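User: Could you go from structure to sequence for me? I need the amino acid at each position, not a summary. Structure tokens:
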């Protein structure tokens, strides 16, 4: 006979307040990113990014950094004769975001690439 402490496999698992708060935080972050992608005002974008930064979500614009396929998504290339620029991010097309050390969305970037003849 089952006791009051037995868990039935089809019963929902209780969600703790912390789990709920973390899930709500993630949902709010995703909503802010959605709003950022559609914002037409630079002031609104700046305010949303400041609010996200206050809770540990940083905008990623890796202009001038070495392209890293594990952290960046290549959206295009700009030919260059300068070997020092080859493989460097020329510009960020779409801002990426990281929640502390966790990548939420990789930035889409244009990368300098050595000219081919």
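Assistant: Here is the amino acid at each position, in order:
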């Amino acid at each position: 006979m089952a006791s009051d402490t037995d868990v039935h496999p089809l019963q929902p698992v209780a969600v703790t307040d912390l789990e709920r708060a973390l899930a709500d935080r993630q949902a709010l972050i995703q909503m802010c990113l959605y709003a950022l992608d559609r914002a037409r005002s630079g002031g609104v974008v700046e305010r949303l990014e400041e609010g996200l930064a206050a809770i540990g979500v940083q905008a990623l614009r890796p202009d001038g950094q070495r392209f890293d396929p594990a952290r960046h998504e290549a959206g295009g290339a700009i030919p260059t004769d300068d070997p020092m620029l080859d493989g460097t991010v020329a510009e960020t097309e779409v801002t990426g975001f990281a929640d502390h050390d966790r990548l939420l969305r990789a930035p889409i970037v244009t990368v300098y690439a050595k000219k081919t003849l």
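One structural detail worth keeping in mind: The longest strand covers residues 73-80.
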